[in-house]
UniProtKB/TrEMBL annotation:
The keyword Transmembrane applies. The chain crosses the membrane at residues 6-29, 41-65, 71-91, 103-121, 127-152. This is MARVEL domain-containing protein. The keyword Transmembrane helix applies. Keywords: Membrane, Transmembrane, Transmembrane helix.
Amino acid sequence: MGFIQIIRNILLAFCLLLSLVATGLLAHYAHYTIINEFGGVAIHPFQILGFVTGVLSVILIPVMMIGKHTVILDLIGMLIFWVLWLTEMVLLKQHRLKRFGRFRVNFACTTFSASYCYETFVIQNLLITLVALSLFHILTLFIYALVCHFNGSPIWSTSMRRLNKPVQAPPFIPGQMATPGVMQMPITYYNPAPMSYEPEKPVSSHVTGASNSHGEPVVIVPSEPKIV
């Protein structure tokens, strides 16, 4: 497992933990809105969205940590979670302003309404953390994929389990080139034909009628055999 995978799994595990805590607090706050809501029983949109997001995080985040999917699917999945957590955070903030106004949260609050106001404050901060972590995950993985794409080795369809995996040299096979990244071609050896000697026909020595500058006769000597 590479360095990127280790950091990513730690981040996803932390997101799963925060999502479970936020969902549990939402379930506890739903008891307050159902019993004490003015005008009857009420379930607010941020609560429904929070329960759906919590169930999806319990199912999908462990699957994403296994990493059998591709990089592009991981980016799409985290983008969906980022949109859900961001929407839930905005809806919860609107509900807090409407229900409690600008009530100043006191850590030593004892009244019934103040305790639930503080609970919504904690949920909102958990959602802010989840939005920041998911955005960091998306930007980091997207930038890394873009760098690999422009370097000539795209990883969009690469499995997350193989991402940043140490490169292993291929085994050496006699008669083949083992250079990674280069198309392997069989090696052929050139065996030259054996050398043969083809001697010329012998020429008998004889004296010609020609003479040199000193008046001596010219003698023809047979040449040596040539190598072909």
